[in-house]
Amino acid sequence: MTLADVFRARGCPDDDADRRAALVARTAQGLRDTWRAEPQWQWYVPGRLEVFGKHTDYGGGEVLVAAAPRGFAVAAAPRADGRLRVVDVPNRVTLELDAEDAGPPRTGWTSYLQVTRRRLAANFPGAPLGLDVAFGSDLPRAAGMSSSSALVTAIASALIARGELTARPEWQQGVRAPEDHATYLGCIENGADFGALRGTSGVGTHGGSEDHTAILLSEAQHLGHFRFVPTARLARVAVPPGWTFVVATSGVHADKAGSVRDRFNRAAFGVRALLALWNAAAPTPATSLAAALALPDAEARLRHLAATATPLGWTADALRRRLDHFIAENAVVRDAVAATSRADAAALGALAEASQRHAEQWLGNQVPETSALAAVARASGAHGATSFGAGFGGGVWALVDHDDVDAFAQAWTTAYRQRCPHVTNVAVVPVRPGPGVL
Asked: What is the pTM (predicted TM-score) of this model?
């Protein structure tokens, strides 16, 4: 069986399987060329497409997600000295961390590797984590397809295999299901505790585990309907055969651990502030904002609290808008599951338009370019379109009929460049949902 056959067996179309296999092969060769090591482990770690569920996961909300057909290939070989050596094969950039890793926090993509290694070393003391690693990626820049979480998942997969961490009692007591695995990876990234596995600094963002869940648990030709805090799969939703999601990049790079971190975190802190108001007044604290809202008369009570007892740094209007968005986006997710199940493209398009409008008016995570990209997608013939992911840049998905993908992509990008002539780096990726980590 060839590498491409492995991907085909997991449901990937022929061209997708061939592209993934080629990336895996190039990455393995990069390990040999750079570190003179033969791969003992190899992975393909996809990015993710968030269909609906903008900024809902960390509040215990719901999402509709899928694994993208682009991602990271990773090849790794063990080292005996505890050092971690990593090469970004396409860009020929290397990182070396000694066994103690006592240096200052790093920036850029290297920070994700450092944070992941430090967290696993702290949670599993004495585990052998020495590795030579190579990775390569074909995820387009500024697409919002969660390259950061894919990279965390990729390097964590290599370190977990090297240290045989799944056989450790700490792992077996805390990580009992695939959903737990995804949640733990989210905690590595955001720095939170995961049961007895105590948190470290994280990468500076305070998101949830939506991305890691999609990356690990997706299935080909399906969308995953998940709820969080705790993570649970609610449904597997087949994508109608005639549908294709087309993703285009806005050209505005949104680095949620860098340039837009504070704005990304404010959306998360708004949910925390609402939950803190509820728990301060409730006889029994709720574990998440969604759990609070599930209680009798909760929405009206929470709206009253937000209007009369605003915490430091928040206005009543800001809390109202954050609550409005959280409630509305969760409703959109549930309606989208039903629309997809009955292959109702018009209904899904209307939901996409509503989700985009809510993000612009209430969540406040849009930039002119993403709003324009969604608008011209609809004008170019898409059933519907909306931005996705962290926001403040990134990409937009558009739903089109399978036979119209090439013509639509040309019309869409042409119209967008006319609307935003200052943008030069626009990439388009047709997305039929693929399998999770392989």
From this structure: 0.95
